[in-house]
Amino acid sequence: MGFVGSRAVWLCVYLTLLLFFGGARCFYLPGVAPQDFGKGDAMKVKVNKLTSVKTQLPYSYYSLPYCKPDKIVDSAENLGEVLRGDRIENSPYMFNMQEPQMCKVICRVTLDAKDAKNLKEKIDDEYRVNMILDNLPLVMPFKRSDIEATFYEHGFPVGLKGQYAGKTEQKYFIHNHLTFVIRYHKGEDTDAARIVGFEVKPFSVKHEYEGQWDNKKQLTTCDPNRKRTVTSSDSPQEVEDKNVIIFTYDVDFQESDVKWASRWDAYLYMADDQIHWFSIVNSVMIVLFLSGMVAMIMLRTLYRDISKYNQLETQEEAQEETGWKLVHGDVFRPPSHSDLLCVYVGTGVQFFGMILVTMIFAALGFLSPSNRGGLTTAMLFLWVFMGIFAGYSSSRLYKMFKGTEWKKITLQTAFLFPGIVFAVFFILNALIWGQESSGAVPFGTMFILVLLWFGISVPLVFIGSYVGFKKPAIEHPVKTNKIPRQIPEQAWYMNPIFSILIGGILPFGAVFIELFFILTSIWLNQFYYLFGFLFLVIIILLVTCAEITIVLCYFQLCSEDYLWWWRSYLTSGSSALYLFLYAAFYFFTKLNITKPVSGILYFGYMLIGSYAFFVLTGTIGFLACFLFTRLIYSSVKID
Questions:
Q1: Distance of alpha carbon 245 from its chain centroid, rounded?
Q2: How many C-beta atoms lie closer than 10 Å to residue 46's C-beta?
Q3: Is 328 in contact with 305 (CB distance < 8 Å)?
Q4: DSSP 206
Q5: Three-state SS letters, 545-575
Q6: For the purposes of burial, counting CB atoms within 10 Å of the CB of 594, is it exposed (0-12), middle (13-18) or buried (19 or more)?
Q7: What Rg value do the Cα atoms of the chain yield, rounded?
Q8: CA–CA distance, 433 with 70 (Å, rounded to integer)
Q9: Whether pLDDT at 156 is above 50
Q10: N- to C-terminal Cα distance for the chain?
């Protein structure tokens, strides 16, 4: 569930979170205190997992034959980092502040057949090496021809494929020489420096030397005394059995005007602001259209009710108004499978509470990229503690339906949604274990997750359910008849399946443009921090879900069909179906995943994300429709 937890939770976050206002460049707290370095101070580089957009399976850095320190030490990780698949360890790369180095030899490695095969597989799958210095990730800068701005990619490729001049045979080459650029900023009143950038240019070089080898041997291909530096990969290092690879690096220090508090701005820069604004305008137009329809419905119904139907009306209008009024004795009749509806509404309230608090944290900046794993950890703990609201909501609704077995509904609320998600997690985690990926969750972490679930979440659901069930039952504004009214034959466009599927289109349409950027940031390892746009989109999404459900619910009641309970939930919840279909479209058009296991993992994560999206949007639609029906039936005088 490690990497599973990473993808699934990030998807639940991104697809349902759509976070807080603040523009393209939000204020954030960096997550760690700044560290000052004097000239000559030691700087330790850490290594992180190997990642690939082709397989989506992370591996430990030392699963490849790279140079190792005397003792490999795991850095302290929070729960979120483990679930993200991060494996942060120390490395033999050691720098000293403002002391450039050239052609520094780390070690010499002789490949065996297994190592060569492993390297070739990683190069084929386009794996990238990730490193960290002072909590900043290593990036490769590049420029786009259409925009005058510098963009950054995470890490650097393990190697590359190519052919020698005049030959057609495909060869594999490893990047064994790294040219680091460390950017630092000096304060006005101090000589201490703070790191504001960590960049790299990788090269593949077949190093040569004279005589017998030792670690202090001077290379002939890279000699600082002769000012001979590595500037190209013209003579690359081939990956084959028995080949000897010498790993080297340069490091240069460049002073920067960028201050420490703004060092993430360049990483988070996105040049597609206009597309995001187009997305917002598109969504706002949908909301305005729906708001006009809701306002028209509310004004017509309430005005005609107050006038007691005494004004002159056309026959069609009178029939329409009489339609929804005629079902007053059945509109609040409990639906079939009311227990399940209570459970899903409670779970949706739990989701909404988790998202609301997460928005506050995002606004304060605690969920910035510099706080690795912070978002995932926050989401997990908030989900656990919001269980009290899930229990309260489900039991209140259950008592309104004249239910008496509150413990039964509590158990279902505590175990249904988390149980389904955990089962999918476990299966996907087993697949990851089978691939020997570092993204698989250790059993110790699995135990912690189960402990959070059973030790905190379940008791809180029981507490909330107990308090909710002790409250007086919600009274309906009109009485329910003992004998159900017969529902007349409906027009084809009022068919439940058709109206439900139509209802999900507009909520999905309000978010699908932003969804492209969200999926890109998750599956293509791009930086994403436009929480201002995300906040606006989540507001638009919630309003759209509420309004489309109210409109379709009104048309349904006018047709004298009073079975609105489940349909209101499914109407807005059906947007999750379109989300999953869009994810499938994105998979086949934008991703280059070829391995069956990676494809299963992708659709497994997207299924979990769509399920969470269904629960959230369905609950919003149901609650809006519930309040709407109570409002219109409380305003009409029933004979």
A1: 39
A2: 19
A3: no
A4: -
A5: HHHHHHHHHHHHHHCCCCCCHHHHHHHHHCH
A6: exposed
A7: 30
A8: 28
A9: yes
A10: 59
Token pair listed for 231: 């500037």
Distance CA 259, CA 63 (A): 36
Q: Which residues pair with 475 in a beta bridge?
A: none
Per the CB < 8 A criterion, the answer to whether 612 and 351 are in contact is yes
Per-residue pLDDT, 227: 63
Rounded Cα distance, 152 and 51, in Å: 16
Q: Where are the alpha helices (DSSP H) in 128-269?
A: 265-268
Based on DSSP, count helices (H) and strands (E) in the chain, helices before strands.
18, 13
Cβ neighbors of 421 (< 8 A, separation 6 or more) are 8, 608, 611, 612
Residue partners of 206: CB distance under 8 A and separation at least 6: 221, 235, 236, 237, 238
pLDDT band per the 50, 70, 90 thresholds, residue 29: very low
Task: Give 107's DSSP letter.
Answer: E
Predicted TM-score of the model (pTM): 0.84
**Which residue, 363, 343, 335, is CA-closest to 19?**
363
What's the average model confidence in pLDDT over 374-392? Answer: 90
**Spatial contact of 554 and 297, defined as CB atoms under 8 Å apart:** yes
Q: What angle do CA 600, 605, 606 make, to 5 degrees?
A: 100
Phi, psi of 148 (to 5 degrees): -85, 75
Three-state DSSP class for residue 104: strand
| Residue 309 pLDDT exceeds 50 | no
What residues have CB less than 8 Å from 319, skipping those under 6 apart? none
Kindly report the number of other CB atoms within 10 A of residue 249's CB atom. 24
Instruction: State whether the Cα torsion 519-19-605-156 is positive or negative.
Output: positive
Q: Which residues make Cβ contacts (< 8 Å) with residue 441, sequence separation at least 6?
A: 1, 2, 4, 5, 82, 83, 429, 449
Report the alpha-carbon distance of residue 251 to residue 42 in Å, rounded.
13
Query: Residues 264-302: pLDDT tens digits?
Result: 877 776 555 566 677 677 777 877 877 787 777 767 765
**Banded model confidence at residue 393, pLDDT cuts 50, 70, 90:** very high
CA-to-CA distance for 395 and 342, rounded, in angstroms? 7
Q: What sign does the dihedral 269-271-272-276 (CA atoms) show?
A: positive
Contacts of residue 29, Cβ cutoff 8 Å, sequence gap at least 6: 364, 365, 366, 368
DSSP collapsed to 3 states, 232-261: CCCCCCECCCCCEEEEEEEEEEEECCCCHH
CB 160 within 8 A of CB 204: yes
Q: How do residues 467-523 score in pLDDT, each as one tens digit?
A: 999 998 888 888 878 887 777 787 888 888 999 999 898 889 888 877 887 888 788
Which DSSP string corresponds to 30-80? -SS----B-TT-EEEEEEEEEE-TTT---B-GGGSS----SS--BPP--HH
User: What is the length of the chain?
Assistant: 639
Structure tokens at 196: 């504001």
